[in-house]
């Protein structure tokens, strides 16, 4: 029988502090969110003494969460303390990855012309130059304006307009920006009959999901330009974006079309700590009852829960890769 182990360390101004007990650890990671988050729940008292961690753990403290079985620990979360809350006879430590640092204001500027990599590097230079940009999504803008905004606001706008997959690797101090469903950071194998505890998946075929996507922009002359792709007569989706380069309208439209119309699983599966998995992993999913659904799927989100009931991951697969 496996024994669950965990290690949670905080650093405040470089001074380490290690938690000795927790009620639960909940970690949420998703390519649809700009940040990964973690909630550490503590009992209000431990060994008849009220917890007092105000000096050791505070807003901005660094946090590293490691967990696993039989002292074989893997890093599950790296980030910063966003808040410490007292609620329902317990303490909750709310944590966020490096996006926490990027919630600071940046200088007003008009960039003309520019690109996603240039905008992202500008944010890094102003917030924390120790971070490295990893970007292979070269969407261009005829003009991009930053006005009374935080770096978070800018990244959110880029994600919404370009459909880019934007996330931080806080441990390596990296800001990643990629086309959707392209970045693949690992592989995992699931059998719905063998290493999956519960399954709530619905298989959706592309042939049954007809979509027509139009992306519109207003150019610097005030004229509307657009690009349309997909199946005529299908569900109509219109996206309005800023003054991106005319040739990049197709990239954005194609990305949205794949998200809405590819063969995919909708729903989630519940698994255990092993195998380790994160969003952007490729999951080979096997179903002995319906082998026609077997294939490789892109992992969209993973919610990890560690408490007295066990160590569980709720995994959401997305589009079928092959």
Q: Give the class from helix and strand content and strand pairing.
A: mainly beta
Give the uncertain stretches in residue-range form: none
The radius of gyration over CA amounts to 22 Å
Order of helices and strands: EEEEEEEEEEEHEEEHEEEEEEEHEEEE
Percentage of β-strand residues? over 45%
Task: Calculate the terminal CA-CA distance, rounded to whole Å.
Answer: 36 Å
Largest sheet: 13 strands, mixed
SS elements, strand count: 25
Average pLDDT for all residues: 93
Question: Top keywords for this entry?
Answer:
322 residues, 13-stranded mixed beta sheet, mainly beta, three-stranded mixed beta sheet
Report what the structure shows.
- With 322 residues, the chain is mainly β.
- Helix content is 11%, strand content 49%.
- The protein has helices spanning 116-127, 151-162, 249-261, and strands at residues 4-12, 15-18, 24-30, 37-43, 45-46, 49-50, 62-69, 72-87, 90-96, 109-111, 114-115, 132-135, 140-141, 144-146, 165-169, 174-178, 186-191, 198-204, 211-218, 224-230, 235-240, 264-272, 281-286, 295-307, 310-320.
- The strands form six sheets. Strands 1, 2, 3, 4, 7, 8, 9, 17, 18, 22, 23, 24 and 25 form a 13-stranded mixed β-sheet that branches. The chain has a three-stranded mixed β-sheet with strand order 12-16-15, covered by helices on one side. A three-stranded mixed β-sheet has the order 20-19-21, with helices on one face.
- Strand 24 and strand 25 (310-320) form a beta hairpin.
- Helix 1 (116-127) packs antiparallel against helix 2 (151-162).
- The longest helix is centred in the last third of the chain and has 13 residues, at 249-261.
- It is flat, with a radius of gyration of 22 Å.
